[in-house]
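Example record

Each entry pairs one chain with its bound ligand, heme C.
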Amino acid sequence: MLSLSAHPADGAQRAQETQDGSVRARHLALRHLVKHDCGSCHGMRLTGGLGPPLTAVALADRPLQFIESMILRGRPGTAMPAWQGILSDADARWIAEMLKEEGFEE
Ligand code: HEC
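Structure tokens for the complex follow.
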């Protein structure tokens, strides 16, 4: 669903460009996932639904570490699923920072 393949690059500069491009592409894919997959429970604008709101205001008192581990491990006994295996640690950290610091914008 979120697979990104690295393209073979000629020189070091090209490799750097490709890597930057992959990171940007990954972040776009993560935004898409947050909107569609997280949004299915937390609301399309993340203002709450089955799950609580994930706006910057709502998450203001939640440490980044808490948000990251909530994403990776979920919360057993609730509908919040674990995303480990689908999302990497770096993905979860990026989403946590994006939600908390920028607020989700489509
Ligand atoms: C199947 C429904 C569902 C999906 C999909 C889902 N969540 Fe949740 N999420 C929940 C529920 C329900 C809770 C509340 C759990 C509880 O009672 O503590 C929750 C809680 C959370 C919390 C804790 C919020 C707080 O203030 O305590 C965060 C952060 C979170 N989800 C992030 C995400 C992210 C990011 C995604 C997508 C990668 C996601 N969730 C996908 C249902 C979902």
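Confidence is low (pLDDT under 50) at residues 5-9.
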